[in-house]
Amino acid sequence: MDIPYTVEVRRDTGLNNGKIGIWLFLASEVMLFGALFASYILIRTGSPSWPRGDTLLDVPLATFNTIVLITSSVTMVMAWASLMRRKFGTFRIYMGATILLGFVFLIVKYFEYSHHFAIGEGPSHNNFLAIYFTLTGLHMLHVFGGMVVNAYFWGPGAKLYQTNPVWFTNRVEHSGLFWHFVDLVWIFLFPTLYLL
Amino acid sequence: MSDHAADHSTDDHAVDIDKHVKVYITVFVTLMVLTVVTVAISRLHLSVPVAVTIALFVALVKGSLVAGYFMHLVSEKRLIYAVLALTAAFFVVLLALPVLTHEDGFWIPQAAEPAAAHPEAEHK
Amino acid sequence: MSNPADVVHAQHVAHEAHHEELGFWRKYVFSTDHKVIGIQYSITGLLFLLFGFSLMMLMRWQLAYPGVPLPLIGGLFGDARMPGGTMLPEFYNELGAMHGTIMVFLGVVPLAVGGFGNFVLPLQIGAPDMAFPKINMLSYWSLFLGGMTMLGSFFVPGGAAQSGWTSYAPLSVIAGTGQTWWLIGMIFLITSSLLGALNFLTTTIQLRAKGLTFMRFPFFVWAQFVTSFLLLLAFPPLEAAGVMQLMDRVAGTSFFMPSGLIVSGQVLANAGGGNAVLWQHLFWFLAHPEVYVLILPAMGIVAEIIANNTRKPLWGYRAMVYSLVFLGFMSFIVWAHHMFMTGMGTAMAAFFQTTTMIISIPSVVILTSLLLSLWGGSIRFNTPMLFATAFLPMFGIGGLTGLPLGLNISDIPLHDTYYVIAHFHYVVAPGTIFALMAGIYYWYPKATGRKMNETLGKIHFAGSLVFMNVVFMPMFIVGLAGVSRRLFDAGSGYDFAQPTMHWNVVSSWGAWLMGVFQIPFIFNFFWSIRNGEKVGDNPWEATTIEWAAPSPPPHGNFAVAPQAYRGPYEYSVPGAAKDFTPQHEAS
Question: B15 and B2 in one domain?
Fold first, then answer.
């Protein structure tokens, strides 16, 4: 007996299992980053002085990274739209672009990190850098996780398209939801850490 | 079979998918503009409360655009809204956490000090 | 492909064929079948309960006879822990911290949610399996890794975590290596719970049988549903806190470390500026909902068994469901009642005290409904029912003694005394664990096709009930005398603790004798797999859908997808031919 509603939607909820699963997962992610944001606010308001982000961090690089991540969100949603139009070739191009842009983001982040370590500003330097490394580090792990899943759907996972295109499109949509969420977190991280 | 029904609905989607794509491009451009705007505002070196308000407002708009259009929340099923509403409620509780660690003064900043001083005077 | 339906069908056939050739490893170890995973969870949970209980029995020796060498086995623990058989304070602290952690996160939760939830919930809603079987497997193995990390931490230099199960900063940040292992273990356990929770929620919403509306759910399904929401939304803040504490310990940050902290006469070199109370907030933001994670599945199990054995519908089913949902919601805004002593303002204390009083109302509604369900029933006192009935007064004591702790005035003298220990152990040990025992006796026939032995079960019950109370009742007295729960010698150095010292001896002997009375259970559990009385699919003549499946249920559970025609507890329907009308029987 196969598990129902993996592909088709259940009539009364109007959803398939994967869609509910990914949204529940994102709900827990909201609480994860929410706790870190709350900690950030608490530590910042409790400290006598707090550095402006741009005195310690590289705003142009981060602005570039913001643009990279937003662009990757668009390519992600375009990858899904290509599948909806049943254009597998276009899907591969957009999905490939999404993964590459994620990669660019990580490389830029690597340069930012290594610069900080080179001048001895590690996470233990002060609480601003502590929360900076924790938040961006956790966010980078999410970017990496999203890239792994996307790479799977770009490569070996794409076999499913041949046998069940609807299911494959759904799975890409769900992986996209996660990717957009990662983008969304960055949209909040960028001003809070770099600009304020 | 229900599989067939699902495929059929996909075809329906394919008709207006072009409309979707146009929306995605518009949202993309808006997000870019807002990114530049928020960086530009930070160059003005406004006072912290004002800067925080503006930056978070811009971030909120950008976030809503991503959630609404890229994540299709503008046309999602009721169940997803319910889950997110519940999450939002507890998220607010979580963000209230820094406030909760404050002493009474945070709630009644003016009244707190004289009220605290008063009983001491009586004891004397 | 022009017709995906055909392809799906072809895949389906291939899938079925594939299942028949599953080897031993795929079938029993890395299984994706919810029943196998449920049993894996249950066995793991039971083993950890036994292990956590053993840690406590060691501690009880030290508390009853402080400084006296432990006879017979005292030499086994080595000079680093118990030189000459006498327990070192550090080792006592390890035992205390790990007893709490293991009992809560590796004992009760895996058994109540992972075990019963996995095994029973899909069957009760008439589903073929969980919605995401592979994630389900991942969830179990994540728990397994977490458990192994916790066990492994006993063997690192300096021993396991010593900062209590709450791991309060800054003590936990400056503690030895074991604490790092504790944090890594917790991250595995949290991941496991999150994956499990989203799976339960999706399964309950999507895979329930045709006709099984939410108001036709057995109470157990409702309990698991609310519990899963708590796990899903309350655990991530602790994960965040765990990551921050890990950063504090490994990367030298100061999230929880105030400036200028002096340890052993030296000012710490940290950057400082952190907030130790932040850890408490984040910890209790999880850990208060966690209390309801411990108790709600237990209430669900008890509700099933009481309805079945009184042969009556549950009294006030709707009120119980609404109370449950309200309870789940409120459990997120009461956490700071654990923190009245952190110097919080009076306005905040008043707020949390009020929410705490409010949350006791739905608990009382559920307990009262269960109690009134007994009224006028022709009760069958089999082993599951004995445990379920005992749950009511035991949980009642636990709940009522919690009220003075929720009011900040009375919390001040009681905080961190043995009174607190007695209170929450009455909720969790004779409360939840009795319910879990009831559940094991009740669903054992479904898992194995055989009943557990009734005589041994009754011996197990009687001994456990008596000695549970012998263990915990004296702790109220010790606690009211003001003895702190953290003292490794039970306060033998203090004058004020002297009048209550003998109660520690009573508690300890109660604990050891309770251990003896678990032997019939352990024997019964294994013996009955082969030698228990053979029974049919529905030995208790129950109404819920899990009893429609064969015992033990095959892969995929039901030959034909069941359908629900009525509410869950149609017992003794006037005019019906038999005294139970199953949910899945068309009228």
Answer: yes
Query: Residue A127 belongs to a domain with what CATH number?
Result: 1.20.120.80
Do B44 and B26 fall within a single domain?
Answer: yes
Strands (E), A107-177: none
Q: Is the ipTM of this complex over 0.90?
A: yes
How many domains, in total, are found in chain A? 1
The CATH number covering residue C93 comes to: 1.20.210.10
Name the residue of chain B whose CA is nearest to A49's CA. B48
Band (B104; pLDDT cuts 50, 70, 90): low
Which long-range CB contacts under 8 A does C572-575 form with residues at least 24 apart?
C572/C311, C572/C312
Q: What is the pLDDT of residues C136-150, one digit of tens each?
A: 999 999 999 999 999
In chain B, what residues touch C233 (CB-CB under 8 Å)?
86-87, 90
User: What is the pLDDT, as a whole number, of residue A1?
Assistant: 60
Tell me the C-alpha distance between C225 and C541, whole Å.
25
Eight-state DSSP code of residue C430:
I
Asked whether residue C302 carries a pLDDT value surpassing 60, the answer given is: yes
* Pairing assessment for the beta strands C533-534 and C450-451 based on DSSP bridges: antiparallel
The parent domain of residue C352 ranges over: 34-259+272-548
Q: Please tell me the distance in Å from B86's CA to the nearest CA on chain C.
A: 9
| Residues of chain C contacting residue B107, judged by C-beta atoms under 8 Å apart | 345, 347
**Nearest to A39, CA basis, from C183, B50, B101, C351:** B101
Residues of B within 8 A of C343 (CB-CB) are: 103
- pLDDT tens digits, C251-282: 999 999 988 888 888 888 888 888 899 999 99
Residue A171 CA to residue C562 CA, distance in Å, equals 29
| Residue C570 maps to a domain | no
Residues 6+ apart with CB under 8 A from A37: A188, A192, B95
For C224-273, list the strands marked E by DSSP: 262-263, 266-267
Q: Are residues B53 and B107 in the same domain?
A: no
> Between chains, do C282 and A39 touch, taking CB under 8 Å as contact?
yes
Does residue C266 lie in a domain region? Answer: no
In total, how many domains does chain B have?
Answer: 2
Q: What is the pLDDT of residues A13-23, one digit of tens each?
A: 999 999 999 99
Q: Can you tell me the distance from the alpha carbon of B63 to that of A73, in angstroms, rounded to the nearest whole number?
A: 12
Q: Are B25 and B68 part of one and the same domain?
A: yes
Report the DSSP beta bridge partners of residue C450.
Answer: C534
- Report the alpha-carbon angle B11-B14-B16, nearest 5: 125
SS3 label, residue A109:
helix
Q: What is the mean pLDDT of chain C?
A: 93
Domain span at A21: 17-195
Partners of C451 in beta bridges: C533
Q: Are residues B45 and B82 in the same domain?
A: no
Give the orientation angle of helix A165-189 with respect to helix A127-154, to 10 degrees.
160
Cβ–Cβ below 8 Å for C275 and A4? no
Expressed as residue numbers, the domain containing B124 is: 77-124
- Alpha helices (H) along C21-117: 24, 34-64, 89-101, 109
Distance from CA of B112 to the nearest CA of C (A): 11
Question: Which residues of B are less than 8 Å from A78 in CB distance?
Answer: 21, 24
The model's pLDDT over C67-83, given as tens digits with 9 standing for 90+, comes to: 999 998 988 998 889 99
With a cut of 70, say whether residue B114 has pLDDT above it. no
Asked if A187 has any chain B CB less than 8 Å from its own CB, the reply is yes
Cis omega (within 30 of 0) for bond into A48: no
User: Tens digits of per-residue pLDDT, C179-227?
Assistant: 999 999 999 999 999 999 999 999 999 999 999 999 999 999 999 999 9
Residue C329 pLDDT exceeds 80: yes
Identify whether residues B1 and B58 lie together within a single domain.
yes
Backbone dihedral angles phi then psi of residue A195, each to the nearest 5 degrees = -105, -20
A34 touches chain C (CB under 8 A): yes
Residue A192 is classified by DSSP as I
Is C378 an 8 Å CB contact of chain A? no
